[in-house]
Design a protein that fits this description.
The protein is of the alpha+beta class. 25% of the residues lie in helices and 28% in strands. It has nine helices and 25 strands.
Length: 440
């Protein structure tokens, strides 16, 4: 059977990854059966406004010890009670949901959930669509408050039932529950130097452990700041590499840990499109265009890039202030440069996650010509009369063109790890995949 759950955390407490891992352990300890394969952590559309934190759904395949209706019901009740007891239902945004799908559900449901999974990552799904699926296929489920968690619960089951998508892994270490809560009272204890050593020993197989964009102050991206159960998390290409890195980390005692199979770092949320006319709010896109004006910085420190494609001007593209040095790259773009932008479309703005520079226009400036005799800059001889060297009396009709050296190169640029979305594919991973394909 497949068990999926979502929306049990709040902005400050609990974590659905923790609850899913705990329930999987408790099911085994209570003699209900055993977990089969990986626990799954599936990130959904990052632009959804009613998410709590990372918009992740959790699930795992479970092999029940018995195959009777009575046993199934006891197992479902056990999981449902655990969720109801632990979910942060006092939070307005928290609307837990869980589903229980058995192996004999049939190929029609499997195909429908495959489409549902992909839609949940790239599109906007209403609760009614999830409720229709649950009803049409008589799926046992838990729905608390408005039951929005049913969307993620079904989506993660779709991912588990239809493998083959690009995946990565994350090792999550959890704190003792007595240490949860206000960080001013019980701050996390994770040694930054050990994180740096782990990162350097396992990169490029792991990523987003440390943000080196501020070289004097390396920032441990993998250590959260809220009061939730996570102590730290290591992301990478395989279970082995994230475990190796995690074993090098020096920290407060780890309550327990879990490795998840995930779609993080895959760009699964991005939709390639040909025209800005196709853009819909709360979706994420890849789109090519040409810079049409100088980059402008607004009062909030956000850099605004305006592009045009073959059909029309694009909405503004924004490199927000928290993206740090990425904004310096954006500021170097000039009209005529051709780029591919990657990001989410909200409030009529494409929020940049990364950018590929495809073509650099020549940066031409016009200055008074230099005298070929004395090498001094000529002066204007009057309106419409060209230029003249006052010393040598030499003349020139036109200004001299000068092409400046562009301090930027063709290629990809990304926001720093501390500003990166969970689903965004880091360049270190893109480079590794390109290298592997070339070697093959």
């Amino acid at each position: 059977m497949f068990i999926g759950m979502d929306d049990t955390d709040s902005n400050e407490r609990m974590c659905t990854t923790y609850l899913a891992a705990l329930i999987a352990r408790d099911l085994e300890a209570a003699g209900f059966g055993s977990v089969s394969g990986d626990l799954h952590l599936i990130r959904l559309n990052p632009s959804i406004p009613y998410k709590t934190r990372g918009n992740a759904a959790l699930g795992f395949e479970f092999l029940p010890a018995e195959d009777t209706a009575e046993f199934r019901n006891r197992l479902i009740s056990f999981v449902s009670e655990k969720i109801a007891e632990s979910a942060e239902t006092g939070c307005e945004k928290t609307n837990p949901g869980a589903v229980f799908i058995f192996e004999d559900a049939g190929s029609e449901l499997k195909e429908r959930l495959d489409s549902f999974f992909k839609k949940a990552v790239t599109d906007v799904i209403e609760i009614t669509e999830a409720e229709q699926i649950v009803s049409a296929y008589s799926i046992p489920h838990l729905s608390l408050k408005n039951g929005r968690g049913l969307i993620g619960a079904l989506a993660v089951c779709g991912a588990m039932m239809n493998p083959g998508w690009d995946c990565t892994y994350e090792y999550l270490a959890y704190r003792d529950p007595v240490r949860w809560g206000d960080q001013s009272v019980s701050p996390r204890v994770v040694d930054t130097d050990s994180l740096i050593a782990a990162d350097q020993a396992t990169s490029p197989g792991t990523w987003d452990t440390i943000d080196y964009s501020e070289k004097k102050y390396p920032f441990p991206v993998c250590v959260p700041s809220s009061g939730d159960p996570v102590l730290f998390g290591i992301r990478g290409e395989s279970p082995e590499i994230v475990r190796t890195a995690a074993e090098m980390v020096v920290s407060e005692p780890v309550y327990f840990s879990q490795i998840f199979k995930t779609n993080q770092g895959t760009d699964a949320h991005l939709l390639p499109i040909q025209s800005a006319a196709e853009m819909i709010p709360l979706h994420s896109y890849i789109l090519e265009g040409t810079v049409v004006r100088e980059v402008q910085t607004n009062e909030g420190g956000h850099d605004i890039l305006v592009l045009a494609d073959d059909y029309e001007n694009l909405p503004e593209c924004a490199a927000f202030e928290p993206t740090g040095n990425f904004r310096k790259i954006i500021r170097k773009l000039i009209p005529g440069d051709k780029v591919a932008v990657y990001g989410s479309f909200k409030n009529n703005t494409l929020n940049l996650e990364k950018i590929e520079i495809l073509f650099l226009a020549p940066d031409i400036s016009f200055e008074n010509p230099i005298c070929p005799v004395c090498q001094k800059r000529m002066k204007s001889a009057g309106k419409g009369q060209g230029f003249r060297c006052r010393t040598c009396k030499t003349k020139s009709e036109n200004k001299a063109e000068t092409a400046a050296v562009r301090k930027i190169n063709i290629g990809f640029y990304e926001v720093p790890p501390s500003a990166r979305r969970h689903l965004s594919k880091p360049l270190i991973r893109m480079n590794n995949h390109d290298k592997s394909e070339n070697e093959e």
